[in-house]
Design brief:
By secondary structure, the chain is of the alpha+beta class. The protein has helices at 16-24, 37-40, 51-57, 60-69, 75-93, 97-104, 108-112, 119-122, 130-151, 153-174, 184-200, 215-229, 236-252, 259-285, 340-354, 418-421, 431-437, 443-455, 459-472, 477-489, 495-505, 510-522, 526-539, 544-554, and strands at 2-7, 10-15, 33-35, 45-46, 290-295, 298-303, 307-310, 316-319, 326-333, 359-368, 371-382, 385-396, 399-408.
């Protein structure tokens, strides 16, 4: 069928496909005179009176082109840019800057430890300097106006907000120690949406709209991503999160024209908002991420963003930047073996120095890797604040291990960290002990192994290694001296007999004499030790070793 059309005062004959294309691109308007012999015979009528015209003009393709050619007033884009600029002015030129930056930035410790989830959105309304906000607002204005014409204000608002939110979530998870500000996650969401829209609906784009959609936006995205990777202080994870959120939504959305597509967009936007709520719930349940702490003979954990500081007891600690929580994971090296009771009392004394009225709410014995310990729960006051302490103390030979979680009373997720911290504690061999156990090569290696076992309080192993060394080197005084030093650290009832045997076997060895005397004093036999020195002094008048021991042990 041929149609006659009057354009610019002249008659033009078109085939039906050409007529349909001219209607879609707006060349033929509703008042344009048209004539088609099968339909109007020889009469000229307005094109809008044709049922064919009405069907074509109501098609989504035509409506999209109309929206792109003459978009509605972009009130959301204008409002967003206006709010961003006003907040920037407040932060730069009024005293509220510190408050806004302190409470609105994307800062993972505050989000997870302080439950300040609004930061996942509000960080998108803060900017560092004039260049920062200028760049972001230019992109919002350039892309937002174009997208708002085809998506509508509400749909665009949901897309922008969800891009900021999911960019904040990804940044919070993968850049937890770094605070972030800026609307760039939303910018990347808009850019990705414009790119996806242009690629999906390239045949609907008029020439004037092509620079804001499709491949043109992919160039911007690629450039910005690459430049972000090579620049400092850029939240690349936030950018990627915003890009993925915006692109994924646009892959589901349709141009906001026609009743069917509008209804679909409303459903998609509702689902996006719902998913945001699910994301908030997930963040509320997200456990504080932990990283290992390795001390000599002690492995524990701490939150990844806690930094070094000091505990109330003077111990070196890992400190929360938000709620004042502290974690101590420390190995103490003593000159002599310490008991579990002594270690626990030392920790309690340290807290009593801070608060003489501190209270032990719970005390129970525990065991970790065969090492006995005690779990304590303590409450004390510090600087007008009630604090709660969960602690585990372990004693093994000369080593004492402490793991302490000290938090303000009622501090939420941080206070519950002990449930995850203490099951993760392991007590491997201290470095020196592990090295000694690896020694090999005769009776000297056996003595080295015995010394390592003695350091961690493993008396059966230490005694067995010394006995083996004595069998391998029966004429050597060193194994006997090692046995005397062992019973000096861990006295028992056999000390007098052991010292008699040692002095009889090596009567002239000064090292054996000194080790025997020290063993007797440690075992509670000072009179016998003094007598042994007197007897030896008779045999060797003026012996300096004997005189020194008398001064040191008996103040003579």
């Amino acid at each position: 069928m041929l149609l006659h059309v009057q354009l610019d005062g002249s008659e033009r004959i078109t085939a039906l496909p050409e007529f349909e294309e001219m209607v879609r691109d707006g060349t033929i308007g509703p008042e344009t005179p048209v004539r088609a012999d099968p339909l109007t015979r020889d009469r000229w009528i307005p094109a809008g009176a044709l049922e064919l015209y009405q069907g074509l003009r109501a098609s989504p393709e035509v409506l999209v082109r109309q929206a792109l050619a003459s978009p509605a007033v972009p009130w959301f884009t204008a409002l967003l840019v206006g709010i961003e600029l006003r907040i920037f002015a407040w932060t730069q030129y009024t005293p509220v800057q510190g408050h806004l930056w302190g409470s609105l930035t994307k800062y993972t410790p505050a989000i997870i430890e302080g439950d300040e989830y609004w930061r996942l959105l509000t960080y998108g309304f803060l900017h560092g300097d004039l260049a920062h906000i200028t760049m972001n607002m230019l992109f919002i204005a350039y892309i937002g106006i174009a997208l708002e014409g085809v998506l509508g204000s509400v749909t665009l608002g949901v897309l922008f907000a969800s891009s900021v939110f999911w960019g904040g979530v990804l940044s919070a998870l993968l850049m937890p120690a770094s605070p972030s500000v800026g609307a760039s996650a939303g910018d990347f969401g808009l850019l990705a949406a414009a790119a996806v829209f242009g690629l999906r609906y390239s045949d609907l784009l008029p020439a004037r709209a092509r620079p804001r959609f499709g491949a043109a936006m992919l160039v911007y995205l690629l450039y910005l991503l690459v430049s972000g990777l090579t620049a400092e202080r850029v939240d690349n994870w936030g950018h990627i999160g915003g890009l993925l959120a915006g692109g994924a939504q646009m892959a589901l959305l349709r141009p906001n024209v026609g009743a069917t597509w509008r209804a679909r967009n409303r459903k998609i936007s509702f689902i996006v908002v719902l998913l945001g709520g699910v994301g908030l719930v997930a963040m509320a349940r997200l456990p504080i991420p932990l990283v290992p702490i390795e001390e000599d003979g002690l492995h524990a954990s701490r939150p990844v963003w806690w930094t070094t500081g000091w505990a109330a007891t003077g111990d070196r600690a890992w400190v929360s930047p938000v709620d004042g929580g502290r974690i101590v994971a420390r190995t103490l090296h003593h000159e002599r073996p310490t008991s579990l009771t002594e270690s626990v009392d030392a920790l309690l004394d340290a807290y009593r120095e801070v608060d003489p009225w501190c209270v032990v709410r719970e005390s129970k014995d525990v065991e970790r890797d065969g090492v006995p310990g005690r779990h304590l729960r303590i409450a004390y006051e510090s600087e007008g604040q009630t604090r709660r302490v969960d602690a585990e103390v372990y004693a093994r030979g000369r080593y004492e291990h402490r793991v302490v979680l000290d938090v303000p009373e009622g501090s939420g997720r941080v206070a519950r960290l002990w449930v995850r911290l203490f099951p993760r504690i392991t007590l491997p061999l201290p470095e020196e002990v592990a090295a000694s156990q690896a020694a090999s090569g005769g009776w000297r290696a056996l003595l080295e192994q015995a010394e390592g076992a003695s350091d961690i309080g493993d008396l059966p192993t230490a005694r067995a290694r010394i006995d083996a060394a004595r069998r391998e080197a029966p004429g050597e005084p060193a194994p006997v001296q090692a046995l005397l030093e062992l019973v000096t650290l861990y006295p028992d009832a056999s000390v007098p007999e052991l010292t008699d045997e040692a002095l009889t076997t090596f009567p002239a060895d000064g090292r054996i004499l000194e080790a025997s005397v020290r063993a007797l004093v440690a075992a509670g036999h000072p009179d016998l030790a003094e007598q042994r020195l007197e007897d030896r002094l008779v045999a060797a008048p003026g012996d300096r070793r004997i005189l020194r021991l008398q001064r040191e042990l008996f103040d003579r």
